[in-house]
Amino acid sequence: MRHLLIFFIVFACTSSSVVVGLYLRKVLPEHHLSEQSAGVVRLATGLVATMAALVLGLLISSAKGSFDTVSSELIDSAAHVVRLDRVLAKYGSETQPIREALRQKYAAMLETLASDDPSRLARMDDPEAVRRVEDFQRLVEGLSPRDATQRELKTRALLLVDELFATRWLAILKEKVPIPMPLLVALVLWLVAIFGTFGLYAPHNGTTIAALLVSALSTSGAIYLILELNSPLDGVVRVSLTPLREALAVLGK
């Protein structure tokens, strides 16, 4: 919802600047709209447009990288949890309660990720969640191997527990890296200046006005997609949870 609000704010700012530019075209003296003046303004606008394009490109690249990283880490966590379950199964029947606890915790985490509830997502790294992870780790540490094979399996299980939950925290931390607000504000101001100039020197007819408004809509949509990609665990554009569901389906079997 917050991203949608930002989208409408950006669109309102850019489209309003077009309207202001069209109005100024009517009231400014003729020499302000001469070819010489237009040439200088176009050069200045080109510089601002170049900076805006560079910032947009960098933000898209950064947001896509963050999205891909979280997606990759969640897929890795699905693989780790299946491997952990199989190692515990090989250890022996005494690990059945631990495997059931693993399944319950993983199902709870998947339910939280699928809920699209920011308040629930925010609780994934609170002290209570950390305590539950440590409790599960202590269950694995409490195993008493009877031979060399079980000792090796216990060591592998503890390593997988560390990898699994380290991956989870990395995904959560990546998800919580916001776009710097001053950078976003500067970008919107540059876009307002650009579209205001477009309106100032554009012919006053329905076709050009429609084209400028569509351009403003497209630019606002690009910013909206950047914000969505930068929050891959909630919102409209989010990572696929299919690998996690497939992993959950095989746990305990």
From TrEMBL:
<feature type="transmembrane region" description="Helical">
    <location>
        <begin position="208"/>
        <end position="227"/>
    </location>
</feature>
<protein>
    <submittedName>
        <fullName>DUF4239 domain-containing protein</fullName>
    </submittedName>
</protein>
<keyword id="KW-1133">Transmembrane helix</keyword>
<feature type="transmembrane region" description="Helical">
    <location>
        <begin position="40"/>
        <end position="60"/>
    </location>
</feature>
<keyword id="KW-0812">Transmembrane</keyword>
<dbReference type="InterPro" id="IPR025333">
    <property type="entry name" value="DUF4239"/>
</dbReference>
<feature type="transmembrane region" description="Helical">
    <location>
        <begin position="183"/>
        <end position="202"/>
    </location>
</feature>
<dbReference type="Pfam" id="PF14023">
    <property type="entry name" value="Bestrophin-like"/>
</dbReference>
<keyword id="KW-0472">Membrane</keyword>
